[in-house]
Every structure is written in C-alpha cells, then in structure tokens.
Write a structure and sequence with these properties.
- Keywords: ATP-binding, Helicase, Hydrolase, Nucleotide-binding, RNA-binding.
- Helix content is about 40%, strand content about 10%.
- The protein has a seven-stranded parallel β-sheet, with helices on both faces. The protein has a six-stranded parallel β-sheet with strand order 8-15-14-9-13-10, sandwiched between helices. It has a two-stranded antiparallel sheet with strand order 11-12.
- Helix 6 crosses helix 10 and helix 12 crosses helix 14.
- The structure holds adenosine-5'-triphosphate.
- Adenosine-5'-triphosphate binds next to helix 9.
Length: about 625
C-alpha cells in the first residue's frame, strides 16, 4: 500500500501541507484525475488582466491610487467611461438629491435631449417648464392696464401717449409680470414691502419685441411722481416751519443767523437712470419716455456720444432739475468721474440689455455705476431678452437675492417667425454667399415691386430687410456688394463713417421721423463700373452686426437674412427677434455654406417650429 506524505503530493504541491485530504486515501485514482482536470486549463488560459501593467507601488510597497481628477487621467484609455471621472459626492449630499426621474425633471431631460448639437454650445440659462406654467397661471387674470394701481395720470398716458392709436391694447406677459412686482403690489411685493430696507433687485427677462421698455418705464415714472409729491409736502412743511421761526425771532428780538434759502440743488442729479448699450437705443428709449412726459410732466434727457459735449452739458445741468436720464455706460461713467453728484440722487437704475452691459466690453463701466449709486438706490432693474449662462452665474454671486421676473415663452422664438435655409454650396451660387444674399433679396423685393401701384412704384409696400453678419468688416463689404447689384443697402456698424446716412436708414427702419432736409436713403448708386445696372425698387436693406441688433425696435421689418450662421442661440434669438415683433409674422433666411453648422441650424428650426425654448 502506497503512502503519500504531504511533501510528495503531486497536485497540491505546497498547499498539500494544509490540504485536509493529504491523507492516505489521496491515492485513490478518482481524486487524482479530478485534480488533473482542474489544473489543465490553468496552463492554457491567460489571465484577463494580463494586458494591464502591474500596479505601481509606492515606496512603502502599497499600490498607488489612480488620480481620476488629474488632466492625464484619461490617457491611454480605450473606452470612454465618463462616470468614472466624476468626483464622488460629498458625504451627506445624497439626502438633498432629488429622487431620479420624477415628474417635470424627467420630462425636461427628454425635451432637452432633442437638442444634441445645441447641447455642445449650451449658452442659455434654463427655466423649468413647471415655472413657466405657474407664471402663466399667475398672470392669466390680468387683462387690462387699468388693473395696475398706477397714478391716474400715468394710467391715462398709456393709451394717449405710449400706445397711441392702439385701441384695446392689452398688457403683454412681461408687463403683467413686471409692473405689479415693481410697484410692490404683487403677492411677493406685499409680503416683503414692510421689511424692505435696502435696495430691491429685479431681473426682467422676456422675448424680443414684447414691450419690456414700457414694463419698467411705467412703474419708475409712477415712483418718481410719488416721490415728487412727498418731497413737495416736505418742502411745504419746512417752509411753514421756517416762517414760524422767523416770526418768533422777530417777536423775541433775538439775534440769529438767517439760514437763508435752502441751497439743495437738484440740477444734474437725476432720480432715475437708464443705461443702454448704443446711441441708437438712447434715442429710442428717450423718445418713448418723452412721449409719456408730455402728459405726466417730468423731465427726461438722453445723452450719447453722438451728441456734442455742449449739448450734453446743457441737457444735464442747464435745467433746474432732471428726473430721468438715458445714457450709455461709457459716457455716464466718464461724466460721473468729473461730476460725482450725477449719481448722488438715483433711486432707480435700469440696466437694459443686461446681457450686453455685463459682458467684458461694458462691465468695467456698468459695475462702478451700480456701486456708486447704491447708497441712494431703491430699485436696481436689469432687463434682457436672454439670460446667458455667464450672466446667470454672475447674478448668482453678485446679486443672489435678485427677483427673476421671467415670461412663459422666454428663450423661445415665436412660431409665427419661420426660418428658411439657402444652401450656398449648391447651384446656382456655387459657394458665393454674397450672390446668394443678393438673389434672396431680389426674390423678396420683386414681389414688393410687382405690388407697387404708383407711377414709379415707390413707397408702396416697401420691404425692409435686415442682413446680419458676424464681423464688422463683412458688413461694409456685403452692403457694397448689394449696392453693386442694384439693391438699396447700407451698413450699420461702428466701422462705417457715414454716420448721418446710417441714422437716416435706421430711422426709416424703426419708423422714426426722417429729417426733412435730407434727400432720403432711397438714392443709391445703381451703377457698376460706370454702367447703370437694373435696380430693385421698394426694398431697403440694412446690413448690421450683432450690436446693431440689440434692442432696436424694428416693427416694420418682415425679413431677416442671417448672412453668417450665428455663433450661439443667444445671437439667433436677438437677430431673428428684429422680426415678428409684438405678434406680427416674420421670416428669417439663413445662408448655410461650407463649414457652417447645419446641425445647429436644423435644431434651431425644429425648436422654432415646435415653439420650444432654445438652450
Ligand atoms: N401692451 C402693448 N401692446 C401693443 N404694443 C406694445 C405694448 N407694449 C409695447 N408695445 C410696442 O411693442 C414694441 C416693442 O417694444 P420694446 O421695444 O419695448 O420691446 P423689447 O421687449 O424691449 O424688445 P427687445 O428685446 O428687442 O429690446 C414697441 O413698438 C412698443 O410700442
């Protein structure tokens, strides 16, 4: 009988020492063959982890942990595993996390999921659909301006001055949301009014062409008139007091210094300031405020760099007092450096087109104006058609308590605006974008010319078209090309020197009165290389860069051509927002060429078709 000692065990080798079966019955054949079967594959199969490098060991001999957050963490990976790279949540944060996929959240994820290309450049801050629906419900009951507790004179001026000729005009959604909030008569306002001490902050955000200007102007003018009445009462009481004291002094024959007249000078110290990015917008907002002041009686002035310094000085300081000032930040900041009192009585400060005025080119002028007016400020009102993510982040840190007054359709381009696409690479343009642009304008313009009835078919059903380009230099190039093709076009850009003609053309587009002395923008050189070419009557074209598009009220414009595909959805919203204003219909045409983001254009079109908010 064979006896197997532990050291001779063929199958268990070293382990055999501890093997419970290292006993004499190990010799049984059955057990030996089983062990052989088990061991066979071990000689043929490689470990699954054979390709991996052996773990790096620290000086203490322990494996070094991979740094997932390091910029080199993803090197040499063959699989994308984004989850792995996410930092683990801090302890305790699980409690605050909402249960996954509940109600609105889940639905929104699905809605967002459609914008695959736009997600890559996600530019806009999100407003939940739940919030949009609740705002809709809240403002549903407001049907007329009379429901706002405005002073009777302010109330009257709406139909007779601001919306003259518009019978039965109803407040727009942003006016329904903002006017009660700024007056402090909405539910939140009533609750907080009593414990209000410092400055109130508001963000008004609504679609383009939805009447935001009137939404902030009416409550501010109302507040100015209230303050005026209070101050008049106070002045009367002080006057009575002074009179009484004088009589007392006379009766008592007391020697006292006569305090004399109160030297409180309010010239050059406006109560309300409205900041806008361009001189064109200064003119636009001032015109509306002036229309209101005919009835309401308050003093408003607009100043911009297009006005001479002498006129600026007289507008600010020549009047006994000034109630409202409209300006650009650059100009006001330079005036405030020389004359700090200009910001010493401001109770209402509006930053219109806030997304522009808080961006890099304006922020260094806008922010100090806010800081310097803060001691007297009662309301800071920011206003914008879009809330970019950068602005959203800035507001969260700088104004965490700001009240966001948004409308249900914020960031959605209305369905009444259609977006068409012209493929520039295809026949007959063969990549010539300017030719495609001129041809598109001719197609739009021809129908206007055909419908003209006058002998020279002028001023009859004139089509106004805005062409948007991304770069300043392109604006001039494109307008010159269009003129060479017989189109009445002018560039609106800071790079263009013909300021007077620009102003005329813009006035014509915005419906403002044209100066009678000017020959009018209809006279365009219609010749190319000394030869008179055919011309397109009844069509006017403005070639503009993005800054020209901000805030300008071009209600008469039905067509917008996007010569360049806009960089972000923000630009899409502002540019297409020059048409389809205040419930009108409009048409946008985008020229798509080689290298342009077709997927982005497609998604914007789909979003517009479905009336969805862009992201
Ligand atoms: N309640 C209303 N009913 C009818 N029209 C109105 C009403 N309120 C304002 N409007 C008109 O709507 C037009 C657009 O107004 P406004 O320029 O204030 O729009 P906006 O929202 O500031 O646009 P943007 O975002 O482009 O600056 C103006 O011509 C204005 O007279």
């Amino acid at each position: 009988m064979l006896r197997a000692t532990p050291s001779l065990c063929l199958f268990c080798e070293v382990r055999s020492v501890l093997h419970p079966k290292s006993s004499p019955w190990l010799q049984s054949r059955q057990y030996a063959s089983k062990q052989l079967q088990r061991r066979k594959p071990a000689r043929l199969e490689l470990s699954r982890r054979v390709a991996e490098a052996p773990p790096k060991l620290s000086s203490r001999g322990k494996p070094i942990q991979k740094r997932t957050g390091s910029p080199f963490a993803a090197m040499n990976r063959t699989r994308v595993n984004i989850r792995e790279s996410r930092p683990s949540p801090p302890p305790g944060s699980e409690k605050r996390r909402k249960p996954p996929g509940r109600g609105i959240e889940r639905k929104e994820k699905r809605q967002d999921g459609d914008f695959r290309a736009l997600k890559m450049q996600r530019a806009l801050s999100n407003v939940s659909y739940q919030r949009r629906s609740s705002i809709k419900e809240e403002i549903n009951h407001i049907q007329s301006f009379e429901q706002f507790p405005l002073l009777p004179v302010v109330q009257e001026s709406i139909s007779t001055q601001a919306l003259k000729g518009m019978e039965d005009a109803e407040p727009t959604p942003i006016q329904r949301v903002a006017i009660p909030a700024l007056l402090g008569t909405d539910n939140v306002g009533k609750r907080t009014r009593k414990r209000r001490d410092g400055m109130e902050q508001f963000l008004l955000a609504a679609e383009t062409g939805s009447g935001k200007t009137l939404a902030y102007l009416l409550p501010i003018i109302d507040a100015i008139k209230h303050a005026e009445a209070r101050e008049a009462e106070q002045a009367k009481a002080e006057e009575d007091n002074a009179k009484r004291k004088k009589e007392e002094r006379k009766a008592g024959q007391l020697f006292e210094l006569d305090p004399g007249e109160d030297a409180f000078d309010s010239s050059g110290r406006p109560r309300a300031i409205i900041l806008v990015p361009t001189a064109e917008l200064v003119a636009q907002v001032t015109t509306l405020a002036k229309a209101l002041c005919h009835k309401i009686k308050f003093r408003v002035s607009g100043i911009s760099s297009s006005i001479s310094p002498t006129v600026i000085k007289s507008r600010l300081f020549a009047q006994a007092s000034i109630d409202m000032l409209v300006s650009t930040p650059h100009l006001l900041a330079s005036i405030a450096d020389a004359e700090p009192r200009v910001l010493s009585r401001v109770s209402h400060l509006v930053i219109d087109e806030a997304d522009s005025l808080f961006d890099r080119s304006f922020a260094k002028e806008t922010t100090p104006i806010i800081d310097r007016s803060t001691p007297t400020l009662k309301q800071l009102i920011l206003c914008s058609a879009t809330i970019p993510r950068s602005l959203d982040n800035y507001l969260r840190t700088r104004f965490p308590d700001i009240r966001r007054l948004v409308t249900p359709n914020l960031h959605a381009i209305p369905r009444r605006v259609q977006l068409g696409v012209v493929e520039v690479d295809k026949e007959p343009y063969r990549g010539n974008k300017s030719l495609a642009c001129a041809d598109t304008i001719w197609t739009i313009g021809k129908s206007a010319a055909e419908h003209g009835t006058g002998p020279d078919k002028e001023n009859v059903d004139t089509k106004r078209i805005i062409v948007f380009v991304n770069e300043r230099d392109t604006a001039k190039e494109v307008s010159e090309y269009l003129v060479s093709k017989g189109i009445d076009a002018i560039a609106l850009s800071r790079a263009v020197d013909n300021v007077e003609k620009q102003a005329e053309a813009l006035a014509d587009f915005t419906g403002a009165a044209l100066p009678t002395t000017s020959p009018g923008p209809t006279s365009v050189p219609l010749s190319t290389k000394g030869r008179v070419a055919r011309s397109l009557p009844n069509t006017k074209v403005l070639v503009a860069t993005d800054l020209g598009s901000r805030g300008i009220d071009t209600t008469a414009v039905r067509h917008v051509i996007l010569y360049d595909v806009p960089h972000t959805t923000i630009d899409f919203i502002h540019r297409l927002g020059r048409t389809g204003r205040m419930g009108r219909r409009g048409r946008g045409i985008v020229l798509v060429g080689k290298g342009d983001r077709r997927d982005v254009v497609k998604e914007v079109r789909e979003g517009m078709f479905m009336g969805k908010a862009l992201i």
